[in-house]
Amino acid sequence: MEWSFAPAEELIAAMRAGAVTSVELTDEAIARIERDDEVVNAICVPDFDRARAAARQADQARARGEDRPLLGVPVTVKESYNVAGLPTTWGMPPHRDFVPAEDAIQVSRLKDAGAVVLGKTNVPLGLQDIQSFNDIYGTTTNPWDRARTSGGSSGGSAAALASGFGALSIGSDIAGSLRTPAHFCGVHAHKPTLGLAASRGMVAPSEPALPVELDLAVVGPMARTARDLTLLLDVMAGPDPLTFGVAHRVELPPARHARLRDFRVLVLDEHPFIPTGSAVREAVNRVATALADGGARVARHSPLLPDLAEAATLYMRLLVSGSVARFPVESLDQLRTRVAGLSAHDQSLDSVRLRAMVCSHHDRVEANTRREVHRHGWRQLFAEFDAVVCPITPTPAFPHDHSPDPMERRIDVDGVEHPYFDQLVWAGLATMPGLPATAVPAGRSPEGLPVGVQLIGPMFEDRTPLRLAELLEQVVGGFQAPK
C-alpha cells in the first residue's frame, strides 16, 4: 500500500496496528521527495539521515510500549524555524551560513511528540511575499500548475503536503502565510488565535531566539485534513515555558457545536477595497450552499460586522509599520519625502502602506486603540454567530511574478489589475484582531486550480472553526492529490 497521501491519523492507527513502520513511511516519503521535488522544489533543506535515525527510534519506542501523539509520523518544517544543525536563512543570502545550535520551541514539541522531521520547506525572502522564491533555494512551484506560485510565505510547506512529502507541516502567518498557500495548493491550514502557540526560535537569523511574541504573527499547523490540523494544534498550543508558561496552561474550550445544523454562520464575499474573483466567489457560495443544505443558519449581512474598510486600513498600518521596523527598506528621509508628496485625500491602501513606513509611536498607539474597538465588535458578532466564512485571497494561485519591486506588481482579478498587496485584505480580517482562522479546500476553478475559503472563529475558541472545517470536509470535499 502507498501511504504518501494518507492522513496522519491513519498513519498513526496503522503503526499502532503493526500494519506499517515509521521506517517504511519515512523511506517512502524520502523516495517521493527524491523523485518529484526537483520540479516542485518544496524541500529546500533535506535532513534524511537524521529522519531515518528518528524513524528507527520511533519504531523502537513503539515496540517498548510508548505511544506519543505523533510517534513515527513524517513531517516537514518551514525553513524559518530554527532546527539545530540545519541552516536558517529566511532566504536572505547574507545569512546562508547561519546554523542555529538549538531547535525552535515548536520543533522541540514536534520531536517530543515523536514526529520524524524530513527537512525544511522553502520560503520567500524575509518571509515577505505571497510567493516562495529566493536567491538561495530558488522557486517553489504549485503542484497543480508549475507556472503558478504555491503561495507564501509557507509555500514550501503547502506544496510539500500537496505532493505527498510528509503528512504534516508547521508554518507561520502574519499576512495569510499559512492560509494563502493552503488555498493555492488545495490543503488545510489553521492560523491560531494570536498568542496561543509559542513562537520562540521562529526568528530571523539576524535576531536572537528570545521568548518574544511578535504583534500579529502566529505559528500554526498545516495538513491534508481538518482532523489532522486539530491533532497538530494540540501539540503546538501552549505558552512559552520561559514566560507565561511558568504560570499558565492551555485548555481550549470545546467546539460550540458538534453538528452542522447547529452552527450560525455569516458568509462574506465582497470587500470594499478589492473585488472577489469569480472562481473564489463560486467557492464561497458553494460552501454557503453546503452549510444551508446541512441545516446551518446562514446569513449574508450583519450590522454587527466591524467596518471592513477600516479593518483593512488598520491591518496595513500595523503590518507595514512593524515590518519596516524590523527590515528597513530605504532611508527614512526618502520615505518622508515620498509621504509628504501624497494627497491628503488619497486613502488608497498603497498610500496607507507608504504612510505606515514612517509611522510614529503616536500613530501606532492610535491604531492599536482602534484595533481594540474592532476586537470588541468581533466579540459582539460572535455572540450571534459561531463563524464567518470568507475568501482568503480574491483569486486562485497566480502566475509566478519575480519583478523586483513588489509595490509595482499587480494582481489580475477577472481581467482587471489591482495593487499586488491589496489582496491581503481578506487575510488581514482575522489577523488584525488576532482571531483564529481555518483554511479549507472548497473546490476547483474552471482551470482546475484549487480554491479555498477561510472560517474565522471567536478568539481562543479555535476548536469551533476547526470542527466546522471537519464537517465541511465531509460535505464539500477535502484534499485531492494533483495528477
From TrEMBL:
Cited InterPro entries: Amidase_CS, Amidase_dom, AS_sf, FAAH2
A Pfam family that the UniProt record links to this protein: Amidase
GO cellular component: endomembrane system
Domain Amidase: 24-464
Protein origin, superkingdom: Bacteria
Listed name of the protein: Amidase
Native source organism of the sequence: Lentzea flaviverrucosa
